[in-house]
Amino acid sequence: MPGLSRREVLFGTAGVMSAFAAGGFAASQAQASDHALTMSHLDHGIVPGTLTKDMMSFSPDGPPPVLRFKQGERTSIGVTNHLDEASVVHWHGLRIANAMDGVPYLTQYPIEAGQSFRYEFTPPDAGTFWYHPHCNTLEQMARGMTGVMIVEEAEDPGFDHDLPLNIRDFRLGGDGQFITLFKARNAARGGTLGTVSTVNWHVDPVFELQAGSLVRLRLAVTDVTRVGAYEIAGADARVIAIDSNPLPMPLPARDVVLSPGQRADIALRVPDREEDDVSLILKKKFDQKVLARFAPRGPSARRDLGELKSLAHNPVPKADLSNAEVMEFVFGWSPEGDAPQVSICGTLGYTFWSINRTAWPGDVPGPLEPLARLKLGKSYVLRLRNESPNDHPIHLHGVSFQLLSSNKRKLPPLVTDTALLLSEETMDVALVADNPGDWAFHCHVIEHQKTGLAGFLRIDD
Ligand code: C2O
Ligand code: CU
Ligand code: CU
User: Fold this and answer.
1) How many whole angstroms separate alpha carbon 326 and alpha carbon 317?
2) In a 10 Å sphere around its CB, with 0-12 CB exposed, 13-18 middle and 19+ buried, how is residue 413 labelled?
3) Does residue 39 contact residue 28 with C-beta atoms inside 8 Å?
4) What is the pLDDT of residue 17?
């Protein structure tokens, strides 16, 4: 059986796994980890004056911690599940071994309530990433379980400060409590939006920054639904990387379109004077909203954006387009409306979407058929065809891909793990299948993912 974790292999075959889980669990806990995450229920103040009940986090008493790793250095994370349901952690954007990818039944068993799992990997790429559950994903993410993860470059680019910004909404009513997490009629269209916008779990926070300094803003859109355009107003700011990969040329931080799962690294030169306010703005169709403010404080450090070293490219192999096989994937509605299978990783109770006319059955024990089989080391062009009137941020685990072309617009040659596929758009992307295993491939509007728009690619070694 493919994709078993090392621990499961050590402690027996899949069939007897649960009987041995306690043994494997104890053995893995005995080893100290570099980082610890505790999946927890909690009440926490999001809107002023009230505690929001029934939140979920990777920490018992606040937002998920920012995890920091070093490029090319092995690290380990001990995850303990203090929820009263199963979960699993996925490291979005990291090109690591399949057994550590955190997808239930594809790469490991769900971590049951009360159990632990030790993840261990070496991040090959530097940049801004994030982590989230892949089990009961809509509910657990909607209630708070989305965290920012940073892999530091071997060579320091020269910023004075580094500021991760975890951008997401919560669906709260006027009393500050959760309202229904989704509506079926929205799940069948663009998805259900949140009602309260937050940055690092705060509504419109003010970050005090040293005047005249150079700050690396790490925007991570960890929302379950919202596609938006972001802007830094009031200062000189340049986008230097998207989805962890450096841009060939820094771009002004205006109209930066990010969909769920995407990140932008922005180099900000803080103004010299305390009265010059800077803001992070989310642009909407007819208006805009300030998500966070940055206040210059103290005497100016007099830094200059030109003093920054450009970021080194990540070691993502370049596809050989002259020998690449083309594979087509069609994203659309589901031909059948059957409810997904019951799973300990939750179901929304509906099937609306499909890939290649097949709806994902739910996170259930296999055997499951891959959407396609790729050969290790070979180059491929994935032709992503959206035949629906909605946008879909398409995400592939384990492998990064390069944007090639679209029938609707000119694409920058970005390397990414998540690409926004517009309504009725056909987009070609290229990759080298250099990481063996079963890699989840899905829309990152979680309602779409959980109602059929998911599957996986198998890279055979
Ligand atoms: Cu960030 Cu399978 O997802
Ligand atoms: Cu991912
Ligand atoms: Cu979608």
Assistant:
1) 18
2) exposed
3) no
4) 34
CB 359 within 8 A of CB 353: yes
Q: Is residue 67's pLDDT more than 60?
A: yes
446: helix, strand or coil: helix
- Mean pLDDT along residues 113-124: 98
Whether pLDDT at 8 is above 70: no
Q: For position 21, what pLDDT does the model report? A: 35
- Contacts of residue 26, defined as CB under 8 A and 6 or more positions apart, other chains included, come to none
Q: Report whether residue 440 contacts ligand 1, using a CB cutoff of 6 Å.
A: yes
Which atom of ligand 1 is nearest to 92's Cα? 1
Ligand nearest to the CA of 388: 3
First to last CA, the chain: 14
357 dihedral zone (left: phi>0; alpha: psi -120 to 50; beta): left
What's the whole-number average pLDDT of the chain? Answer: 92
Residue nearest to atom 1 of ligand 1 (CA): 92
Give the Cα separation of 268 and 179 in Å (integer): 36
User: Is any ligand 1 atom within 6 A of the Cβ of residue 90?
Assistant: yes
CB under 5 Å of ion ligand 2: residues: 92, 397
CA distances to 59, 120, 363 from 66, in Å: 11, 17, 27
Ligand 1 in reach of 442 Cβ (< 6 A) = yes
Residue with CA at minimum distance from ligand 1 atom 2: 440
458 Cβ below 6 A of ligand 1: no
pLDDT at 72 over 80: yes
